[in-house]
Design brief:
transmembrane helix; 31 helices; transport; TRAP transporter, 4TM/12TM fusion protein; cell inner membrane; about 0% strand; about 650 residues; TRAP_DctM-Dct_fused
C-alpha cells in the first residue's frame, strides 16, 4: 500500500485566495481557454502547431498551480516554480517563432540545429516534471523506462531487441512530430475534450448541477436509501458531462456524501456509493467522458457509433449500482431523504426543464454526424442561451470564473496526456506493441478468456493513478492491436473493452484516485471506500466480457441476437447484484448466492447450452431461497 501511495503522490494543488496572483492566474486561464476555443474552431494552423502552443501555455500555468511536493507552500509558488513557468513561456516563444520551419521540415532528414536540441529536450524535461507533479511517480516512471528502452534497447538480446535509435532520432520523433508528446492524447485534450469539460463546468455554473440533484431527489428520494439513490442518479448525470470520475466525486460528492452521513450512512458506504456512481459517468452516453474522443481518433470509428454502442452497457452498469444501493439500504434499514430536501417533480421540471435542452442539442448534433468539436460547440451555445434566459443566475463574473475553472481542471489531464503521448511514441518507434502481442499470445495461447483477463488486468494496472484518457491511450497502444489482430475482435469491441477497464481503474484498489478524492470528504479510509465502490459496481467488471462474447449488447448484430444478448446480460447483472449483497427482501442463503453468481457467469458465456445452465442454476437458487424462507416462516409460531 505504501508503494501504491507513493505512485500517486503528487504536488500540492495551490489556492491563491483573492490576491493579485489569483487574479493573474485566473486571467491567464481564461486566455488559455479563449485560445483553445479559437484554435479548435477558426485557426488555420496545423494540428501540431496548435497543440504545441496549447501545451506550452498549460505548462506555464501548471508549474504555478501545482507544487513540487505535497508539503510545498499551498498559497505561493517557489522560485523553482517561477523558473519552470518562465521556461515554459520561453518554449512557447521559441516554437511560435519557428512554427513554419517545424511544419515544413522533413522528419529524420533535415538536421536539428543546436537551439532545437536545447528547447526540444527542455520541453521534454518540463513535460516529465509536469507529469510527476500532477499524476505522481507511477506514470512518470513508465515514461522514463520507455525512454531508456528507446535509447538502449538495441543492446538487448532476444525478442525485446530493436534497431538503433540515436538521441537525434528520439528527439525528432518525440518532440517535432505528432507521434510523441503531441500525439493523439494531447491533441484530443487541446480540442473537443477541453470544450466538453467547459460544457460541464458552465452547466454547473448555470445551475444545472442543482437541477439534476433536485430531479433525482424528486424521483428517488422517498425510497429506502433515498440519499444514495440520489447520489447514483445525479452523479451519473453530472459525471457524463464532466468526463472525470475524480472531478465528479469532488463536485457532487461534496453534497451527496454529507447528506448520506447525516442520515446514518457509514462513511465508507457513503464514499463508496459516490465513487461507483461517479465512475460510471465516464461511460454514460451521450458524452461518455473525454477518453471516448481519444478512442474515436485511435480507431477512426465515428463518435456517434461509439455512443450508440455504449448505451446498453452504461444502463446495465447503473442498474447494478442502483440495485445494490437498494438492497444494501433495505438490509441496513436506511431511510429516505427528509421531506424538506425533496421537491415535487412538477415544480422542479417547470423551473429547470431548460437544463435538459443541452442534452437534447448534443443528441441532435450527434445524430446529424457533426464532428465532436462542433457537437461541443453547439452544446456550449445552448448552455449560454439557457443561462441568458435564466438571467437571475447569470453574471459576467460567473461566466468568467467558469471559463477559467475549465482550464484549471484540465491542468492535470494535460500533464498526464503529454506523458502518455511520450509512451505511445516510444512504443511506436520500437515496435513494442507487437512484442507485447507476442508475449500475450505466448502466455494465453488460444484461450480468449485468459487473454481478456490479462488485458483487463493490464489496463487497470496501467490506469493506476492517472486520468482515464491517459490510461486508455496506453492500453489501446499496447493491447488494442492484439485483441483485434490475433483474436479477431472488432475495433469497437476491443477498444470499448479497454476503455471500460481504463474507467474502472479510477476506483480499483490499491490506487483508486476517485476513492482518494472521496476519502477527504467522507473522512474514511480510501482503500475501504474503493473496495465498497468495487462491490457496488461489481457487475461492471464482467460487462466488458458480455459484449466481447455477445456483440448484441453493443447493438452490433441482427435483432434476435440483440434482444437475446440484452435479456441474458440484464438477467446476469441482476443475479450478480443479488449475489453480491446477499439480500433481496431478506437475507439470501449462501447456496442461493453461489447459484446466482455461477448462473450469471454461465448466462454471460457464449452458446445456448451455457445459457440454459445459467438459467437452471438461477432457478434452482431461487427455489432454494423460497423454501428456506417458507421454512423460517413456519418455525416462527412454534418459537412462540
Amino acid at each position: 500500500m505504501l508503494l501504491a501511495r507513493l505512485a500517486v503522490t503528487t504536488g500540492v494543488r495551490r489556492q491563491f485566495g483573492a490576491g493579485p496572483l489569483a487574479r493573474i492566474a485566473q486571467a491567464f486561464a481564461v486566455g488559455v481557454a479563449a485560445y483553445t476555443i479559437y484554435a479548435a474552431t477558426w485557426s488555420t494552423w496545423d494540428m501540431l502547431a496548435r497543440t504545441i502552443v496549447f501545451l506550452c501555455l498549460m505548462l506555464t500555468l501548471l508549474f504555478l498551480l501545482v507544487g513540487a511536493r505535497e508539503r510545498s507552500d499551498p498559497t505561493r509558488p517557489s522560485r523553482v516554480d517561477w523558473v519552470l513557468s518562465g521556461a515554459s513561456l520561453a518554449c512557447l516563444a521559441f516554437f511560435a517563432w519557428n512554427m513554419q520551419a517545424v511544419a515544413e521540415r522533413i522528419t529524420l532528414f533535415d538536421p536539428l540545429p543546436l537551439s532545437w536540441w536545447i528547447f526540444g529536450y527542455g520541453l521534454l524535461a518540463l513535460s516529465l516534471e509536469a507529469a510527476r507533479r500532477t499524476v505522481g511517480v507511477g506514470l512518470t516512471l513508465i515514461v522514463v523506462i520507455i525512454m531508456a528502452y528507446n535509447l538502449a534497447g538495441h543492446h538487448f538480446d532476444g525478442p525485446l531487441k530493436h534497431g538503433y535509435i540515436s538521441f537525434a532520432h528520439f528527439l525528432d520523433v518525440t518532440v517535432f512530430t505528432s507521434d510523441g508528446i503531441f500525439g493523439t492524447p494531447i491533441q484530443v485534450t487541446a480540442t473537443y475534450a477541453f470544450l466538453f469539460v467547459m460544457f460541464g463546468t458552465l452547466l454547473e455554473k448555470a445551475g444545472g448541477g442543482a437541477f439534476f440533484f433536485d430531479i433525482a431527489a424528486a424521483f428517488t428520494g422517498r425510497r429506502p436509501g433515498g440519499p444514495a439513490k440520489v447520489a447514483v442518479c445525479s452523479s451519473g448525470l453530472f459525471g457524463m458531462l464532466s468526463g472525470s470520475p475524480t472531478a465528479d466525486v469532488v463536485t457532487t460528492g461534496s453534497v451527496t456524501i454529507p447528506a448520506m452521513k447525516r442520515l446514518g450512512y457509514d462513511a465508507r458506504l457513503a464514499g463508496g456509493v459516490e465513487v461507483a456512481a461517479s465512475t460510471g459517468g465516464s461511460i454514460l452516453p451521450p458524452v461518455m467522458g473525454s477518453a471516448v474522443f481519444i478512442m474515436a481518433e485511435f480507431t477512426a470509428i465515428p463518435y456517434v457509433d461509439i455512443v450508440i454502442a455504449g448505451i446498453v452497457p452504461a444502463l446495465l452498469y447503473y442498474l447494478c449500482v442502483f440495485l445494490q444501493v437498494d438492497f444494501r439500504s433495505r438490509k441496513l434499514g436506511l431511510d429516505a431523504l427528509p421531506e424538506d430536501r425533496i421537491r415535487r417533480p412538477g415544480p422542479v421540471l417547470r423551473e429547470g426543464w431548460l437544463f435538459l435542452a443541452p442534452l437534447g442539442v448534443l443528441c441532435w448534433a450527434l445524430a446529424e454526424h457533426y464532428t465532436p468539436t462542433y457537437v461541443a460547440l453547439f452544446g456550449l451555445a445552448s448552455i449560454l442561451a439557457i443561462w441568458a434566459i435564466r438571467f437571475r443566475t447569470f453574471s459576467l463574473r460567473a461566466l468568467y470564473d467558469g471559463i477559467g475553472q475549465t482550464t484549471l481542471s484540465m491542468v492535470a489531464v494535460t500533464g498526464a496526456c503529454a506523458a502518455a503521448g511520450m509512451v505511445i511514441g516510444g512504443i511506436t518507434m520500437t515496435g513494442l506493441a507487437g512484442k507485447v502481442a507476442e508475449l500475450l499470445v505466448l502466455i494465453a495461447g488460444s484461450s480468449t478468456l485468459l487473454t481478456l483477463l490479462i488485458a483487463g488486468a493490464m489496463t487497470i494496472l496501467l490506469g493506476m493513478g492517472m486520468p482515464t484518457p491517459a490510461a486508455y491511450a496506453l492500453a489501446a497502444a499496447l493491447l488494442g492491436p492484439t485483441l483485434t489482430g490475433e483474436y479477431g475482435f472488432s475495433l469497437m469491441q476491443a477498444h470499448l473493452f479497454l476503455l471500460y477497464y481504463a474507467v474502472l481503474s479510477a476506483m480499483t484498489p490499491p490506487v483508486a484516485v476517485a476513492a482518494y478524492a472521496a476519502a477527504g470528504i467522507a473522512g474514511a479510509n480510501p482503500i475501504a471506500i474503493a473496495a465498497t465502490a468495487c462491490k457496488m459496481a461489481v457487475a461492471a467488471f464482467v460487462l466488458p466480457f458480455a459484449f466481447m462474447y455477445g456483440p448484441g449488447v453493443l447493438l452490433m448484430a441482427d435483432l434476435p441476437s440483440i434482444v437475446t444478448a440484452i435479456v441474458t446480460t440484464t438477467a446476469a447483472v441482476v443475479l450478480i447484484s443479488m449475489a453480491a449483497e446477499g439480500f433481496v427482501r431478506r437475507p439470501l442463503p449462501g447456496v442461493t448466492r453461489l447459484a446466482f453468481a455461477v448462473g450469471a457467469l454461465f448466462l454471460l458465456a457464449p452458446g445456448v447450452v451455457a445459457g440454459l445452465i445459467g438459467a437452471a442454476l438461477a432457478a434452482a437458487g431461487g427455489l432454494f431461497a423460497r423454501r428456506s424462507f417458507a421454512s423460517e416462516a413456519a418455525e416462527v409460531p412454534d418459537a412462540r
